[in-house]
């Protein structure tokens, strides 16, 4: 089957410093694919390169090829907005727009991208996204209260709902649980596994245990390069590379 | 050691207290004088002081500042309605520029605008007069009534005086938005224009504050109007040529009437001061009300 993400010899430098050094990666459809590695290995940069959020950084230079769901991401004719519409993103810090209501946060993407034609259709979509993010039951009676009133875990699930409401093909998650407690983390991990029915999930984590719990495939990154990639079971039981082995056994550094 | 520290602390505390008292006394004195002198004139000539034209100098009655009130309203309405979209767009352009050439242009815009903030407003007015005078022969061919002393020139001067303030405030606000909020807005797949709209909504209170500062500056500006709006004590004809005729303003009324030796005109100057003060206070209260709890 055609991979949904195809990365070929991707080099990224910011202000003259090389962050990604020739990354090659293929991600199949409807799986959870984890990217793990120590801090500073380039995981978050790789994620941000996929939906061109990197464009916001000053002094950026990108070389190589990235194709997501048939879109040549760095082709000069490609509109970055179209890329970001196809690829949803959830960030390390739960970041709902604070002075907007729960409903408006989820409705924002579909509204500004004109994905719906009527209020009823929008209501339906918001409900669908909140259900998929396991949040509907907790917020259905207070959709108009500010998003900032939710707990950290709820805010992160709201951000997942916000991304899902755009009906993306790929969902990028940048250490989505690193600011949450264990209960909230467990809930989000359960959700991630469930989400692959809808989208391909690419999750960055510095926690190898999380990668082993949620993912079908895993890649280990170090110093801007992919050191090893393969099915999660294989990487965690029979890693081929010494660095990978050191990392997953906690003997790194 | 301990005594020296205590002495230093007492010295700082007492100078802070002195500065506070001085401010309270000065501001209190200004407010009290304007209220005492102005309110008396406004009260005894109410409501005609808001609608009449000034009485002749030396007369028993004072008349009113109706044309000046209308002039201020027109000048501010034009300058504000052009100034708001331009300052917001310029702030978005410089704070949210992505391409290298945009960033460079943004830096130049920021520098120029900050320079404009430092300019004496009388120089701004004089420059507008100069530009309008130079343009007059050319513009007159298709706009026959065009003149350098006019409502239009006054509005342009007010625009130039207040836009840098509004722009700088909003731009600083946009720059202070945490990167993760900005990334969230962009990740929704909207173009830069819509994303900026989301970011400005996020900054609602800063934007309101910036706009009220701009509005307050427009209402209270005097020097920039000397060579532009020029001043007028009669109602303008509200026809197609209204933009190209001189017009009065409350601040010009305070200045011109206050300078004369005629008692009734000096009284009118106090009345205009009081109306200006009340307008600013109302603006301050409304903006505080809009920003409550944010």
Q: What would you say about this model in short?
A:
The complex is a heterodimer of chains A (253) and B (294). Chain A is of the alpha/beta class.
List keywords for this structure.
heterodimer, A: 253 residues, alpha/beta, Rossmann fold, six-stranded mixed beta sheet, four-stranded antiparallel beta sheet, 10 helices, B: 294 residues, mainly alpha, MetI-like fold, 2 domains, 11 helices
Can you characterise this structure?
The complex is a heterodimer of chains A (253) and B (294). Chain A is α/β, with parallel strands linked by helices and 253 residues long. Chain A has one domain (5-248): Rossmann fold, CATH 3.40.50. Chain A is 36% helix and 26% strand. The termini of chain A are far apart. The model of chain A has no long low-confidence stretch (mean pLDDT 93). Chain B folds into two domains: 2-44; 66-290, MetI-like (MetI-like fold), CATH 1.10.3720.10. Chain B has helices at 2-44, 66-95, 100-118, 121-139, 151-175, 179-187, 192-202, 204-220, 223-226, 250-259, 263-290. The longest helix of chain B is centred in the N-terminal third of the chain and has 43 residues, at 2-44. The interface between A and B is medium-sized, with 31 and 21 residues.
């Amino acid at each position: 089957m055609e991979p949904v993400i195809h990365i070929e010899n991707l080099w990224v430098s910011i202000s003259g410093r090389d962050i990604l050094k020739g990354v090659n990666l293929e991600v199949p459809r409807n799986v959870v694919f984890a990217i793990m590695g120590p801090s500073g290995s380039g995981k978050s940069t790789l994620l941000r390169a996929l939906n061109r959020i990197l464009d916001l950084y000053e002094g950026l230079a990108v070389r190589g090829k990235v194709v997501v769901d048939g879109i040549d991401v760095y082709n000069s004719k490609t509109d970055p907005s179209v890329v970001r519409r196809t690829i949803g993103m959830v960030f390390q810090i739960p970041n709902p727009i604070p002075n907007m209501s729960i409903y408006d946060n989820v409705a924002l993407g579909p509204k500004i991208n004109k994905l719906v034609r009527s209020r009823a259709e929008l209501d339906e979509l918001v409900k669908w996204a909140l259900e998929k993010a396991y949040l509907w039951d907790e917020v259905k009676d207070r959709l108009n209260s500010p998003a900032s009133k939710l707990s950290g875990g709820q805010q992160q699930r709201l951000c997942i709902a916000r991304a899902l409401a755009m009906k993306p093909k790929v969902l990028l998650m940048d250490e989505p649980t690193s600011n949450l407690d264990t209960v909230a983390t467990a809930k989000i991990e359960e959700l991630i596994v469930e989400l692959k029915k809808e989208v391909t999930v690419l999750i960055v984590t510095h926690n190898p245990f999380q990668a082993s719990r949620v993912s079908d495939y895993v890649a280990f990154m170090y110093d801007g390069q992919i050191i090893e990639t393969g099915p999660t079971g294989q990487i965690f039981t029979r890693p081929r590379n010494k660095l990978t082995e050191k990392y997953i056994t906690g003997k790194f550094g | 050691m301990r005594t020296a520290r205590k002495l230093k602390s007492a010295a700082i505390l007492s100078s802070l207290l002195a500065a506070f008292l001085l401010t309270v006394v000065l501001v209190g004195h200004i407010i009290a004088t304007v209220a005492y002198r102005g309110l008396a004139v406004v009260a005894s000539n109410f409501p005609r002081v808001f609608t009449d034209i000034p009485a002749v100098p030396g007369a028993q009655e004072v008349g009113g500042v109706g044309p000046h009130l209308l002039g201020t309203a027109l000048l501010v309405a034009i300058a504000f309605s052009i100034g708001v979209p331009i300052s917001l767009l310029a702030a978005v352009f410089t704070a949210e520029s992505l391409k290298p050439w945009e960033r460079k242009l943004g830096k130049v815009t920021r520098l120029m605008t900050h320079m404009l903030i430092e300019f004496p407003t009388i120089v701004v007015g004089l420059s507008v007069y100069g530009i309008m005078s130079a343009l007059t022969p050319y513009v007159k061919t298709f706009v026959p009534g065009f003149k350098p002393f006019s409502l239009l020139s006054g509005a342009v001067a007010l625009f130039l005086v207040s836009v840098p303030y509004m722009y700088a405030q909003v731009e600083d606000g946009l720059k202070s938005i945490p990167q993760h909020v900005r990334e969230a807005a962009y990740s929704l797949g909207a173009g830069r224009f819509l994303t900026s709209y989301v970011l400005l909504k996020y900054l609602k209170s800063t934007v309101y504050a910036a706009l009220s500062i701009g509005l307050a500056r427009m209402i209270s500006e005097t020097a920039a109007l000397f060579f532009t709006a020029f001043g007028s004590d009669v109602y303008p004809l509200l026809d197609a040529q209204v933009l190209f005729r001189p017009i009065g303003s409350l601040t010009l009324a305070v200045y011109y009437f206050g300078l004369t030796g005629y008692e009734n005109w000096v009284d009118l100057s106090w009345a205009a001061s009081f109306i200006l003060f009340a307008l600013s206070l109302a603006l301050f209260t409304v903006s505080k009300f809009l920003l409550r709890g944010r």
